[in-house]
Design brief:
Layout lengths: L1 E6 L4 E10 L4 H14 L2 E12 L1 H17 L3 E4 L3 H9 L28
Parallel strand pairs: 2-3, 3-4
Antiparallel strand pairs: 1-2
């Protein structure tokens, strides 16, 4: 799992989460995201490359959101992957983050185009 933090204009930061947001890396992920928020005037959190997410990952997102509210720094969660949407939907928390969730049409499976065997 990797979280890369990019710096934008006026102290704005963008954190891109790649791979898993799970209990296995929760401690390091929490520190990285809280430091990104601490150093930022506002933070965009891109989840488009999250392949796996569990409740530990969800707890980290909730913590970062709580800290953003407490410090008055805007947090935007963007680019929701299928894995992140699955967890947010399961716990009915998509609206908690207050960001629009764009649901795209899944790619057609290659197997759909193949004819069945006779």
């Amino acid at each position: 799992m990797t979280i890369s933090v990019e710096t934008g204009p006026a102290g704005r930061r963008r954190a891109v989460v790649q791979g898993s947001l799970t209990i296995y890396d929760a401690t390091a992920d929490k520190v990285t995201l809280l430091e990104a928020l601490d150093d930022a005037t506002e933070l965009d959190l891109d989840l488009s490359s999250v392949a796996e997410m569990d409740t530990a990952g969800l707890q980290i997102l909730i913590l970062v959101k709580r800290e953003s509210i407490a410090t008055g720094k805007p947090l935007r969660v963007t680019g929701h992957s299928e894995a992140s949407l699955d967890v947010l939907d399961r716990y009915n928390l998509a609206s908690y983050f207050g960001d629009p969730v764009v649901i795209t049409r899944p790619e057609r499976r290659k197997s759909r185009g193949k004819r069945g065997r006779r």
